[in-house]
Every structure is written in C-alpha cells, then in structure tokens.
Amino acid sequence: MPSLKDTHPHFDFFSADSLPDSYTWPPLDDHPSSVHRSDGHHPPVIDLDSPDAVDLVRRACLDWGAFHVTNHGVPTELLHRVESQTRRLFSLPTHLKNLAARSPDVGVSGFGPAPISRFFDKRFWSEGFTIIGSPFEHALRLWPDGLGHVPFCDAMREYEEAMEGFTGRLMRLAFASLGLDESVASEFRGGPTVIQLNSYPPCPDPGRAMGLAAHTDSTLLTVLHQTATGLQVLRRGGSTGWTTVRPVPGALVVHIGDLLHVLSNGRYQSVVHRAVVDRARHRYSVAYLCGPPAHVKVSPSPTLVGPDRAPAYRAVVWGEYLGLKAKLFDRALTSISVPCDVLSIACFASEVVH
Ligand SMILES: C=C1C[C@]23C[C@@]1(O)CC[C@H]2[C@@]12CCC[C@@](C)(C(=O)O1)[C@H]2[C@@H]3C(=O)O
Ligand SMILES: O=C(O)CCC(=O)C(=O)O
Ligand SMILES: [Fe+2]
After folding, report:
1. Distance from residue 37's CA to the centre of ligand 1 (Å)
2. Domain coordinates in residue numbering, the chain
3. How many angstroms separate the CA atoms of 189 and 81, rounded?
4. What's this model's pTM, rounded to 2 decimal places?
5. Has the ipTM of the complex gone over 0.85?
6. Which one of the listed residues 172, 283, 309, 314 is annotated catalytic?
7. Which of 33, 49, 218, 332 has the fewest Cβ atoms nearer than 10 Å?
8. What is the number of the ligand 2 atom nearest to the C-alpha of 255?
9. CATH topology of domain 13-353
C-alpha cells in the first residue's frame, strides 16, 4: 500500500517557522490580510424560504456563480459535528494517516493533497481527505480499536443524507431559474457521494503560501461548509480580482460547477475559486460535490438551445469529465466545447431548415 510519504513526502506543517521553497508561491496580492473591500462586494445571502428565491438564485448565478444559503434545513448540530469530526480526523498522527493514504490504483478516496496539486510546481499548504461512497473502510484503518470510527462515519453518513435533500432542492431552484422544467432536475439526483474534507494549518508566511490553487469544480453544484475566512472567488467578467467569501454564520456556500455550466449552455458559468491560509488560525472546510448518476449524460438543455443559440458543449457523463479534468485540468471544459466552425454549420443548417 503506498503511503503519503511515497505520493507526497510528509511535511510537518506545525514545526515550520518559515516557508520551505517547495511551498513558496509568488506573492498573493489579493490575500485577505492585504485587501479591504466594501461590504457590497460579496456573493449574496439567499434565504431559501424567500418567495423570491428563484430570482435571487438566477441573479447570483449570473453575477457570481456562487452564493450563500440560509434556511437550508441542515441542522446546526450536524454541521458542528461534521466539523468536529473533521478536526479529529486531521489531528491523527501521520503514521495512522499513512494507513489511509489515497492510492492511485484503488481510487481517489483517502488522505492526500488535492488531486489538482499535481498540475502545480509548488505545493499546497493543506491536507485533504476525499470520501467517495462510504468512508468505512478507510476509517476502520484510522481507528482500529473497533469503535473510534463510529462517530466519524455516522457524521459523514448523516451529512450525506442531509446534502442529498438540500442539493435536490437547490437543483430544482437552479432549473426553475433557467426557465427549465423543475421535475427534470430529479434525473440528476442520486449520483455518487463525494465529500472533500480540507485542512489548512496555520502558516508562517500566508501571503506566499497557497491553500488550494484556483480551480473550478467538476460538479453540477458544490456545497461548502466553512466557519473561518479563506475561500476566495473570481467574479466572472469583472476586473475586480479575488473576492474573499467571508463565512456567514449558519449559511452554506454554493458554487456552480462545470456540469451546470454545460447544462445551462454556458449561461451560468462555473466559479473559479481558491483557498488561502492564515498565520494563526487552523481552518477546515467541508465540500459536498454534487454530480449526476454515473450513466446520466449532461448536455446543454434543449430548451436553452435554438436556431440562434447552438449547443456550446457536447454531452458528457460525470466519469468521463472527471477523467478529462484529471488529465487536462483547466482545459477540460474547453475540450468538450463544440468548435466554432461546427457551430456555424449547425446555425446555417438550422436556418436552411427553418
Ligand atoms: C469527484 C471529484 C471532484 C474532485 C476530483 C474528485 O475525483 C474527488 C476530489 C474532488 C476535488 C476536491 C478539491 C478540488 C478538486 C479540483 C480536486 O483537486 O479534488 C476537486 C475535483 C474536481 O472537482 O474536479
Ligand atoms: O476550502 C475551501 O474554501 C475551498 C475548498 C474547495 O474548493 C474544494 O474542496 O473544492
Ligand atoms: Fe473547489
């Protein structure tokens, strides 16, 4: 079984009093400690029970590709429990973490740097634990006494159930906001569970370290639970640089992923985001990555395609798209876009027919 040492030589984040060269990035000008923005410049907070929720979601998706949600129905007690089990997991000693390291031959689940880290020369100041399906097998290796894994697995299973309900509601809202039939959203429910636990230890030089580099998620939607500052988003079309998404107590953050970008034929763009780190605070985040069932093809919705609006992307299933992301990273979405010459032929053909 490969250990973390094989895939990513272990580095003790806590004993470092300066940044090693392999962790030193060019200065992050937009690090929250050096940027002070007005309060208006922030992804909106949407009350899911608001009668205007559909319009608010449409505006947020068009303007930001990200928003906060309150009244989401996920119990506060469960959010606390998931965060405390996440802390418990990352505070395990390295020799135990090595027993549950991600192994490329077996899959993506387990401890390791975020999979996209291999596209960068410099390392991320973070650790990740990816859960695909049940965490039971990995958790039993970490807590071999027969009981230690129970509170961790219970919290993750309950979170998964709560997220299935919540993302079902969100997908219906997103469909309605695009003018699509809400009932079709149910076809995209029930995909494999993917939870990404992230840990960002305190860092001696946060302005030159990167928690998680800029990326979009390969999902329909991602729900992020964060209680400390660190998430930043790029507002599409704006020239305003990185915006720090400060945690809103009790709210969950929602990101548009690449597959909703495809389904909406580019009307809703996936949000580019990253995580930065702090000098004093150890930050944790929990991402629930919502994708479609394995066999479901995602393509631009026929309702959003017409004679004047050709499909901008070809159909793709989640597994294939994840493979493209793992190979091409930020060129994955472009790799499934329909080239312009094909588009103009399609437009011409439809003009001839009509
Ligand atoms: C289903 C998945 C999405 C993800 C790759 C993965 O196979 C499991 C981990 C996910 C994650 C979480 C951190 C950011 C991200 C870009 C990464 O490196 O791993 C995402 C991947 C993704 O959305 O492409
Ligand atoms: O920790 C964060 O704020 C971002 C995490 C994230 O982008 C991810 O897990 O995909
Ligand atoms: Fe992400």
Report:
1. 29
2. 13-353
3. 25
4. 0.93
5. yes
6. 283
7. 49
8. 7
9. Jelly Rolls (2.60.120)
